[in-house]
Amino acid sequence: MKGRTIIQIVLGIVIVALGIVLYNSIKTPMRFDNEYTKRRDACAEKLKAIRTLEESYKLTYGTYCGSFDTLFGRLMSEDSLRVVSKEINYESIPEGIDINEVPELEAVKKGYVSRVEVFVNPIAKLREDGKLTVTDASGYTRQMTDEEILNLRYVPYPRDQRNEFELKAGLLDKSGLTVPVFECKVPLEVLLSDMDHQLVVNKIAEVHEVKDRYAGWKVGDMNQAVVDGNFE
User: Fold this and answer.
1) Which terminal Cβ of the chain has fewer Cβ within 10 Å, N or C?
2) In angstroms, rounded to a whole number, what is the distance separating the alpha carbons of residues 214 and 203?
3) What is the pLDDT of residue 60?
4) Given pLDDT bands bounded at 50, 70 and 90, which one contains residue 23?
5) How many whole angstroms separate alpha carbon 132 and alpha carbon 26?
6) Which of 43-47, 99-103, 110-114 has the highest mean pLDDT?
7) How far apart are CA 120 and CA 124, in angstroms?
8) Residue 211 has what pLDDT?
C-alpha cells in the first residue's frame, strides 16, 4: 500500500509537471508575439515622426539629413521655414467678380490677391499643422514636447538600453536625375535583444522568408526614392 501511494504521488507530480510544460509551450510563443506586436507599433510611431521631421528638413534645406544631432538642432533652432501664402484684397475686387473663379496668376496680376511670405520655425509649423502629436495612456492626443522630439532617436525597447535608430541620407541617381533619399531603421536583433533568443532567431528567419524582407522596422530607403515604412 505504501509503495502504491508513493507511485501515485510521483505520477501526480509528473502529470502536473507535464501540464506546466505544455502550458508554457503554448503561452510562451503567444506572449512573445504580443510583445513583438507592441514593440513594432512603438517603433512605427517613432519612425513616422522621424519621417515627418525629415520631410520638413527637406522642405527647408532641399535635402534629407543623416544625423539626428543636425536634424533636431537645425529644425529646433531659429532657422526659418519660408511659407508662401495668399492674402485676398477684397477692396480691389470689382462687384460681381467671384474671386474663387479667377485663376490665381490672373488674380495676382490684377491685384485681387497678394502673395505673402511668412517665416516660421519648422517645428512650430509642424505643431501648428498638428503633425507632431502623441497619444498618452489615457487616449488623449497632444503635441510632442521638445524632450519627446529629442528622444525620437532612441529605439523604444528594451527599456533599460539607449539604442539609437540607424539614420542615413544621401543622393540617388534616378534616370539621370539626382534625388534626395533617407533611411531610418532598427534591426529586430536590437529591438528584441532582451527576449527569448531562439524565438527571436525564429522570427528573423520567418521575416527573411517573405521575399527576403528586411528583418526590422524602417522608413525610407537608400536605394529607392520612397519614404514609406515597411510596417505600413
Assistant:
1) N
2) 12
3) 85
4) low
5) 40
6) 43-47
7) 7
8) 61
The backbone torsions φ and ψ at residue 62, rounded to the nearest 5 degrees and listed phi first, read 85, 0
Identify the CA nearest to 189 among candidates 172, 174, 208: 208
Q: List residues bridging with 141 in a β-sheet.
A: 135
The number of CA neighbours under 13 Å toward the Cβ of 23 is: 6
**In contact, 191 and 32? CB cutoff 8 Å:** no
The dihedrals phi and psi of 154, each to the nearest 5 degrees, come to: -95, 135
- Alpha-carbon span 102 to 228, nearest angstrom: 37
Q: Which residue's C-alpha cell is 534645406?
A: 61
Mean of the pLDDT values across residues 179-208?
A: 93
Going from N- to C-terminal start, the domains of the chain cover 42-79+145-220, 81-120
The verdict on whether omega for the bond into residue 158 sits within 30 degrees of 0, i.e. cis, is yes
Instruction: Tell me the backbone φ, ψ of residue 215, rounded to 5 degrees.
Output: -85, 75
Question: Do residues 230 and 224 lie in contact, with contact meaning Cβ atoms separated by under 8 Å?
Answer: no
Instruction: Read off the C-alpha cell for 96.
Output: 460681381
The CA distance from 173 to 54, in Å, is 20
Nearest to 232 by CA among 220, 224, 223: 220
For residues 220 and 51, the answer to whether their CB atoms sit within 8 Å is yes
Measuring CA to CA, which residue among 119, 94, 118, 120 is closest to residue 107? 94
Here the cell at position 58 is 527637406
Taking residue 176's Cβ as centre, other Cβ atoms within 10 Å add up to 5
CB 134 within 8 A of CB 55: no
Q: How do strand 177-187 and strand 113-120 relate by DSSP bridges?
A: unpaired
The residues that bridge with 164 in the sheet, in sequence order, are 154
